[in-house]
Model the fold of this input.
Amino acid sequence: MKKCLIVFLLILVPMMLNAQVFGTGQTMRRGSTSIGINPALYMTEGNDELYLYIHLGHGLRRGLDLGAKVNIIGDVTYFGADLEWQLARRSPFVSISAGAHKFVDFGLDATLNVTFPLKRRMNLYFGGDMDIDFVEPESITPLWAFVGLDISMGRKVALLLEGCMGINDIASDILSGGFNFYF
Done:
């Protein structure tokens, strides 16, 4: 269960629209699969928007997983995918991820995630996330700092709660919570 939870969380890390991480610094085991769902509230100077995301994740090999994400509710369609590499396999767990997304414009993602186990079934994760969005007339680079809790609800389910703070003016603040299911 813990493995599945970790895998699903890692897959979600870089894929949440523009900055949403939604996962820990641990990767899924080879052959493991996860499905997640989470609403995300984007807050930009009084212009709040709610999105609902579905995530898929799969462990490719030790320390490497693949994730994909799509929104099913929101004003604009989002699709993204990423690869996550686990750099530290002991506490604190550390991972980096890189991916691409389509949300109005095409963009690239990068995330650094550090995770500390708090209890047997609870992890605290935090880090930084950035995008490079290729918009006209010139590209923009929103930056975020994030913090989240990953709480195991049993062998195959985890609850994630996360907040992302926009570091620069073009990055929205984001609040999110949802569930990951592991297979």
